[in-house]
Amino acid sequence: MKILLTGATGYIGKRLLPILVAQGHEVICCVRDKNRFYIPKEFEKHIEVIEVDFLDQESMPAIPVDIDAAYYLIHSMSSSSGNYDKLESSSANNFVQRINETKAKQVIYLTGIVNDKSLSKHLSSRKKVEDILNSGNYAMTALRAGIIVGSGSASFEIIRDLVNKLPLMITPKWLNTKCQPIAINDVLDFLSKSLLNPLTYNQNFDIGGPDILSYKEMLLGYAKAKNLKRWIFTVPIMTPKLSSYWLYFVTSTSYKLATALVSSMKVEVVCRDPRINELLQVKPMTYEKALSRALIKVSEDKVASSWKDSLVSGRFNTNMSEYLKIPKKDCFIDRRKMGIIDREHTLNKIWSIGGDTGWYYGDWLWELRGFIDKLSGGVGSRRGRTNKKDIHAGDALDFWRVLYANKEEGKLILFAEMKLPGEAWLEFKIINNVLYQSATFKPRGIWGKLYWYSVLPFHGFLFKGMLHRLIN
């Protein structure tokens, strides 16, 4: 079967793709930017990648007519625009209009549980998208989930950050709100088993695990799994804005995502009935087991996808091809080079840079820069990296975004997502056993020039020290 997969670069899409390929399907992956979509070699014969922006009707014809079904896995919840609900509706309308012109028999939509008349802006927007998708001339299947627990999921990372960093928590009262978490593996089971299954046509289902827990119980459950003693006290005086700042500064989430999550977490998300479990023969795992599996994946450095690699986790919101060619005109450039002894050794160090490994020299300065960026409303450096040794175009790497990564070629280009009065690139490339390292800054006005000269004194030892450590 030919399956259209939207959101192919997202947390769910990246994990669903290999399952669809293993089932023998030909998968058409919809992406906004091919430059940030990594294709494993074993998948190349089974997938086709097309560039589609669902906010742009002119890009819709790229979707082939002869598809059999489609997954709708896109959202704009933490878009830089405050009107993400309008963006989501516009995307859904454009999607329906094009799918109506194809041979698709079914559309499967993963959304949030809706069981309260007073919905948050986020859940209300998701419900509106579901209504729009229901208007198509195909069979519609909506799978409604609450908190998704898995290595790299936004929920898991927030829980992990809070529990690992705070032995004592004074928290907002919404931590007592009930929810029904579900393991990422079970979400993928429901998604794959619903495909072209008449039992799921023209219906919506709530999917969740067997446990109904408060967010406080989820945090304490993680603490128990990690053998950590934690004390949590809830107070009624913490406003939504304060709650959002609390999440933003303590965890790796962006402020816009924190705001959307806080508004949603006040609403109880519990499944209405588990009838889909019987229909598809899926037995969801407990929260404890889901946590255990996620922790194993993290410890083994086998995180298949992370919400942090989504563009909404940072400030980069355009096609990477526009930034791949590093400018020279009207730029300040710090260039350095040094002969290398062992190419493979140096490449491995470059490909491990950032995250827990650090930047090899002056780590406290990198951390300070990340902290200052966080204080000013930037991404900071808490995103780290998804994998310790593998990086691909589009990945988040501390306060950088990977623009280009080709280990065979020996070239890595990073673009700064921190708040700056200009644009910055960091490039590493190996040519004829010489490592070239360059930091490029394109200032924006007088403040950009002043910024460059203010940090210039640190470049001499910071970049020089990093270059030496990458070689030795």
Can you walk through the features of this model?
The protein is built from 14 helices and 19 strands. The chain is of the alpha/beta class. Helix 1 crosses helix 5, helix 4 packs across helix 6 and helix 6 (215-225) crosses helix 10. The mean pLDDT is 88.
Structure at a glance:
With about 475 residues, the protein is an alpha/beta fold. The protein is built from 14 helices and 19 strands. The strands form five sheets. Strands 3-2-1-4-5-6-11 form a seven-stranded parallel beta sheet, sandwiched between helices.
Strand content: 15-25%
Q: Mean of the pLDDT scores?
A: 88
Major sheet characteristics: 7 strands, parallel
Gap between N and C termini, in Å?
A: 51 Å
**Spatial strand sequence of the major β-sheet:** 3-2-1-4-5-6-11
Helix tally?
14
Produce the secondary structure layout.
Elements lengths: L1 E4 L5 H12 L3 E6 L15 E5 L17 E4 L11 H16 L6 E7 L8 H13 L5 E7 L2 E2 L4 H12 L2 E5 L5 E2 L2 E2 H11 L8 E5 L5 E2 H11 L5 E5 L4 H11 L4 H11 L9 H6 L6 H13 L21 H4 L7 E8 L3 H8 L12 H13 L20 E2 L2 E7 L4 E6 L5 E10 L2 E10 L1 H27 L1
Parallel strand pairs: 1-2, 1-4, 2-3, 4-5, 5-6, 6-11, 7-10, 8-13
Antiparallel strand pairs: 9-12, 14-19, 15-16, 16-17, 17-18, 18-19
Helix pairs in contact: 1-5, 2-3, 4-6, 6-10, 7-8
